[in-house]
C-alpha cells in the first residue's frame, strides 16, 4: 500500500515536471519567434526608409540639375 502511494506521488511529480518543462519550451519558442518577427520588421522598415531617402535625394539632384540648366 505504501509502495503504491509512493509510486503515485512520484508519477504525479514527474508529470508536473514534464508539464513545466514543456511550458517553458513553448514559451521560449514563442519568445524567439516574436523576436525574429520584430527583427524582420525593423529590417524592412530600415530598407523602406533607405529607399525613400535615396528617392528623395535623386529627385532633389534632378531638380537641381534642371534648375542649373
Describe this structure in words.
The model has no long low-confidence stretch (mean pLDDT 95). This protein is mainly alpha-helical and 69 residues long. The chain is built from one helix and no strands. The N and C termini lie far apart (102 Å). The chain has a domain of 36 residues. Helix content is 97%, strand content 0%.
Short account of what is shown:
With 69 residues, this protein is mostly helical. It is 97% helix and 0% strand. It has a domain at 25-60.
Judged by helices, strands and strand pairing, the structural class is mainly alpha
Strand content: under 5%
* Element order: H for helix, E for strand: H
Question: Uncertain spans, ≥5 residues at pLDDT below 50?
Answer: none
Number of helices: 1
Biggest sheet layout? none
Helix content: over 70%
Terminal CA distance reads 102 Å
Which overall shape is indicated by the principal axes computed on the Cα atoms? Answer: rod-shaped
Overall radius of gyration? 30 Å
Number of strands: 0
Mean pLDDT: 95
List keywords for this structure.
69 residues, membrane, mainly alpha, 0% strand
Q: Layout of helices and strands, plus pairs?
A:
Blueprint: H1 2-68
Amino acid at each position: 500500500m505504501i509502495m503504491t502511494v509512493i509510486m503515485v506521488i512520484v508519477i504525479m511529480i514527474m508529470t508536473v515536471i514534464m508539464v513545466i518543462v514543456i511550458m517553458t519550451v513553448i514559451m521560449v519558442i514563442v519568445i524567439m519567434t516574436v523576436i525574429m518577427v520584430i527583427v524582420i520588421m525593423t529590417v524592412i522598415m530600415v530598407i523602406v526608409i533607405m529607399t525613400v531617402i535615396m528617392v528623395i535625394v535623386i529627385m532633389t539632384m534632378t531638380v537641381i540639375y534642371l534648375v542649373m540648366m
